Automatic annotation (TrEMBL):
Keywords: Cytoplasm, Hydrolase, Lipid metabolism, Repeat, Serine esterase. GO terms for cellular component: cytosol. This is palmitoyl-CoA hydrolase. The lineage of its organism: Eukaryota, Metazoa, Chordata, Craniata, Vertebrata. It comes from Aquila chrysaetos chrysaetos. The keyword Isomerase does not apply. Residues 10-128, 184-298 form the HotDog ACOT-type domain. InterPro entries: Cytosol_ACT (IPR040170), HOTDOG_ACOT (IPR033120), HotDog_dom_sf (IPR029069), Thioestr_dom (IPR006683). The active site is at residues 26, 215. GO terms for molecular function: carboxylic ester hydrolase activity; long-chain fatty acyl-CoA hydrolase activity. PROSITE patterns: HOTDOG_ACOT. It is found in: Cytoplasm.
Length: 342
């Protein structure tokens, strides 16, 4: 167990490892960001469900409620092993914070690289009544500061949730004969029937399955726009406000919102149509921003064609995307300076 995490009778850290296969990767052999997101979520779901069932009481399944902004630090390739380790770092009354590290390993040379660090929040839902949120057994901390830092992260994400607006009304319509490099030219959708293998024991979609499909659509948008090898660079914080039931048909749509010199921001929506046993109308289950970069054969980021905005809404979204880009760039630079000074 690391210094950061829980101590005493708390849950033990877990590690999930898997060799990366050709169907995990794009044509250039780089593993899809969505594959890694799915593995991260699986590890988080195991450790949090195990912890939430560690005391006598109603059995439950931990549902993914939120993923903090995640950066993909270096590409993972086919043949490498992805080692995903997860540990619980904070518990509130009804939620569990899980920190996950992903390390890629070349098992021929032993070379290892950190590829991701992600923070996920899970909420235990009763197996008897999926709408009932249960209490989380508290963990014990090795040091008081760990609890204080965890509480600070918990308060910060709660505040961020209040400030984040869902783009519920936005829909993506097909356009006939769009010009290259316009928003309409690369916008794309996938339609998926939610089957049992996509779902938890409660019969609702795993957050990791949804994130994988979202990354797939974002990747199609990026590839259509620049027609080169593209990889996921980061995913902004995602809140999972709505469950998606087995038997629903989900439409995952993506459109490009912003391009910098060497990056592309893609907004992705997931809309669910619950057909089976459910009188409910189509609803927006989740939305998120993915950032993609285009890589040369040597793995260096390439300039991307600039996005041509046509409508007032596209221009507004471009400016909003630019704001997010400048903000994260400034944060990254500040972190790098801080690290250099230590
Ligand atoms: C997560 C969920 C159960 C919360 O329901 P809710 O009605 O907001 O529940 P509550 O307001 O009672 O909150 C319960 C706990 O969840 C936490 N929570 C709710 N939404 C959250 C989010 N987006 N991120 C992190 N924690 C969240 C709350 O902080 C609270 O914990 P606390 O009391 O310790 O502070 C609900 O939003 C849901 O079912 N989401 C979908 C889950 C899912 O299916 N995930 C996979 C999607 S593909």
């Amino acid at each position: 167990m690391s210094e950061r995490g829980a101590a005493g009778p708390g849950p033990a850290a877990i590690q999930v490892s898997r060799i990366m296969r050709p169907d995990d990767a794009n044509v250039a052999g780089n593993v899809h960001g969505g594959t890694i997101l799915k593995m991260i979520e699986e590890a988080g779901a195991i450790i949090s469900t195990r912890h939430c069932n560690s005391q006598a009481g109603e059995p439950c399944v931990a549902a993914l409620a939120r993923v903090e902004r995640t950066d993909f630090l270096s590409p993972v390739c086919i043949g490498e092993v992805a080692n995903v380790s997860a540990e619980i770092t904070y518990t509130s009354r009804h939620s569990v914070e899980v920190q996950v590290n992903v390390m890629s390993e070349n098992i021929l040379t032993g070379a290892k690289k950190v590829t991701n660090k992600a923070t996920l929040w899970y909420v235990p839902l009763s197996l008897k009544n999926v709408n009932k949120v249960l209490e989380v057994p508290p963990i014990q901390y090795a040091r008081k500061e760990q609890e204080d830092e965890g509480k600070k992260r918990y308060e910060e994400q709660k505040l961020d949730r209040l400030e984040t607006k869902q783009r519920n009304g936005d829909v993506i319509f097909p356009v006939i004969n769009p010009e290259p490099h316009t928003v309409s030219y690369s916008q794309s959708s996938l339609i998926h029937l939610v089957g049992p293998s996509d779902c938890t024991l409660l019969g609702f979609v795993h957050g990791g399955v949804t994130m994988k499909l979202m990354d797939e659509v974002a990747g199609i948008v990026a590839a259509r726009h620049c027609k080169t090898n593209i990889v996921t660079a980061s995913v902004d914080a995602i809140n999972f406000h709505e469950k998606i039931k087995k038997g629903s048909v989900i439409t995952i749509s993506g459109r490009m919102t912003f391009t910098s010199n060497k990056s592309m921001e893609i907004e992705v929506f997931v809309d669910a149509d619950p057909f089976v046993d459910e009188p409910r109308e189509r609803y927006r289950a989740v939305s998120a921003f993915f950032t993609y970069v285009s890589l040369s054969k040597e793995g260096k980021p390439l300039p991307v064609p600039q996005l041509l905005t046509e409508t007032e809404d596209e221009k507004r979204r471009f400016e909003e995307g630019k704001g997010r880009y400048l903000q994260t760039k400034a944060k990254r630079q500040a972190q790098m300076q801080q690290a250099a000074q230590q």
